[in-house]
Design brief:
The protein is globular, with a radius of gyration of 13 Å. It is mainly beta. The protein is 13% helix and 38% strand. Strands 1-3-2-6-7-5-4-8 form an 8-stranded mixed beta barrel. The protein is built from 2 helices and 8 strands, in the order E-H-E-E-E-E-H-E-E-E.
Protein backbone atom coordinates (compact mmCIF):
# COMPACT_ATOMS: atom_id res chain seq x y z
CA UNK A 1 0.00 0.00 0.00
CA UNK A 2 1.52 3.28 -1.13
CA UNK A 3 -1.04 5.59 0.45
CA UNK A 4 -4.06 5.26 2.73
CA UNK A 5 -6.11 8.25 3.86
CA UNK A 6 -9.66 9.00 4.99
CA UNK A 7 -11.84 11.77 3.59
CA UNK A 8 -12.66 14.12 6.44
CA UNK A 9 -14.94 16.42 4.46
CA UNK A 10 -16.33 16.75 0.95
CA UNK A 11 -17.04 20.42 0.29
CA UNK A 12 -20.64 21.18 -0.61
CA UNK A 13 -19.67 22.48 -4.08
CA UNK A 14 -17.43 19.52 -4.99
CA UNK A 15 -20.03 17.38 -6.76
CA UNK A 16 -21.07 20.31 -8.96
CA UNK A 17 -17.41 21.05 -9.65
CA UNK A 18 -16.90 17.44 -10.74
CA UNK A 19 -19.95 17.61 -13.00
CA UNK A 20 -18.66 20.75 -14.74
CA UNK A 21 -14.85 20.47 -14.59
CA UNK A 22 -14.49 16.68 -14.03
CA UNK A 23 -11.97 17.30 -11.25
CA UNK A 24 -11.54 18.21 -7.60
CA UNK A 25 -8.70 19.22 -5.28
CA UNK A 26 -7.65 16.75 -2.58
CA UNK A 27 -6.16 18.64 0.37
CA UNK A 28 -4.78 17.53 3.74
CA UNK A 29 -6.87 18.62 6.73
CA UNK A 30 -5.88 22.08 7.97
CA UNK A 31 -4.80 23.49 4.58
CA UNK A 32 -6.81 25.77 2.29
CA UNK A 33 -9.64 26.30 4.77
CA UNK A 34 -10.72 29.34 2.73
CA UNK A 35 -11.68 26.94 -0.11
CA UNK A 36 -13.43 24.26 2.00
CA UNK A 37 -16.64 24.31 -0.05
CA UNK A 38 -14.67 23.46 -3.20
CA UNK A 39 -12.20 20.86 -1.89
CA UNK A 40 -12.05 17.35 -0.49
CA UNK A 41 -10.08 17.31 2.76
CA UNK A 42 -8.35 14.21 4.10
CA UNK A 43 -6.83 12.91 7.32
CA UNK A 44 -3.76 10.76 7.19
CA UNK A 45 -0.21 10.85 6.05
CA UNK A 46 1.60 11.15 2.80
CA UNK A 47 2.42 8.41 0.30
CA UNK A 48 5.17 6.06 1.47
CA UNK A 49 6.26 5.53 -2.16
CA UNK A 50 5.91 7.80 -5.19
CA UNK A 51 2.62 7.45 -7.08
CA UNK A 52 2.98 6.37 -10.71
CA UNK A 53 1.00 5.50 -13.81
CA UNK A 54 -0.78 2.16 -13.48
CA UNK A 55 -1.30 2.39 -9.71
CA UNK A 56 -4.73 1.37 -8.47
CA UNK A 57 -6.52 4.38 -6.92
CA UNK A 58 -9.57 3.44 -4.82
CA UNK A 59 -12.08 5.89 -3.34
CA UNK A 60 -14.80 4.50 -1.08
CA UNK A 61 -14.58 1.05 -2.66
CA UNK A 62 -14.57 2.27 -6.29
CA UNK A 63 -11.29 1.37 -7.98
CA UNK A 64 -9.73 3.27 -10.86
CA UNK A 65 -6.24 3.43 -12.29
CA UNK A 66 -3.82 6.32 -12.58
CA UNK A 67 -3.35 6.90 -16.30
CA UNK A 68 -1.10 9.96 -16.06
CA UNK A 69 0.56 12.20 -13.48
CA UNK A 70 1.67 15.80 -13.62
CA UNK A 71 5.43 16.10 -13.24
CA UNK A 72 5.19 17.63 -9.73
CA UNK A 73 2.42 15.51 -8.16
CA UNK A 74 4.54 13.52 -5.73
CA UNK A 75 6.58 16.51 -4.57
CA UNK A 76 3.47 18.69 -4.22
CA UNK A 77 1.61 16.12 -2.11
CA UNK A 78 4.58 15.77 0.26
CA UNK A 79 5.36 19.49 0.36
CA UNK A 80 1.88 21.01 0.34
CA UNK A 81 -0.51 18.16 1.12
CA UNK A 82 -2.53 18.75 -2.03
CA UNK A 83 -3.15 17.54 -5.58
CA UNK A 84 -5.91 17.65 -8.17
CA UNK A 85 -7.85 14.51 -9.12
CA UNK A 86 -9.13 14.53 -12.72
CA UNK A 87 -11.91 12.27 -14.06
CA UNK A 88 -12.20 13.87 -17.49
CA UNK A 89 -10.98 10.87 -19.45
CA UNK A 90 -8.16 12.93 -20.97
CA UNK A 91 -4.84 11.15 -21.38
CA UNK A 92 -2.54 14.02 -20.37
CA UNK A 93 -2.64 16.03 -17.12
CA UNK A 94 -3.91 19.60 -17.33
CA UNK A 95 -1.28 20.77 -14.85
CA UNK A 96 1.84 19.77 -12.92
CA UNK A 97 -0.04 18.62 -9.78
CA UNK A 98 -2.83 16.62 -11.46
CA UNK A 99 -3.55 12.90 -11.12
CA UNK A 100 -5.49 11.59 -14.12
CA UNK A 101 -7.78 8.64 -13.36
CA UNK A 102 -9.36 6.35 -15.94
CA UNK A 103 -13.07 6.37 -16.53
CA UNK A 104 -15.68 9.05 -16.69
CA UNK A 105 -18.26 8.65 -13.95
CA UNK A 106 -21.87 9.76 -13.85
CA UNK A 107 -22.42 8.99 -10.18
CA UNK A 108 -19.89 10.04 -7.57
CA UNK A 109 -21.53 8.46 -4.52
CA UNK A 110 -18.18 6.89 -3.62
CA UNK A 111 -16.91 10.40 -2.83
CA UNK A 112 -18.27 10.95 0.67
CA UNK A 113 -17.16 11.97 4.15
CA UNK A 114 -15.24 9.20 5.98
CA UNK A 115 -14.59 7.21 2.77
CA UNK A 116 -11.17 5.61 2.54
CA UNK A 117 -8.78 6.41 -0.32
CA UNK A 118 -5.99 3.95 -1.08
CA UNK A 119 -3.31 3.76 -3.72
CA UNK A 120 -1.45 0.54 -4.43
Amino acid sequence: MKWKIRISEVGREVKELIETAKQFDLVIEGKRNDMRDFTVHFDGGFPVEPLKEGDEFTIGGTSMYIIALGEQVNEHIKGHGACTIDFSGALAPRGPCVIMLDGVYENFDFLRDRAIITVK
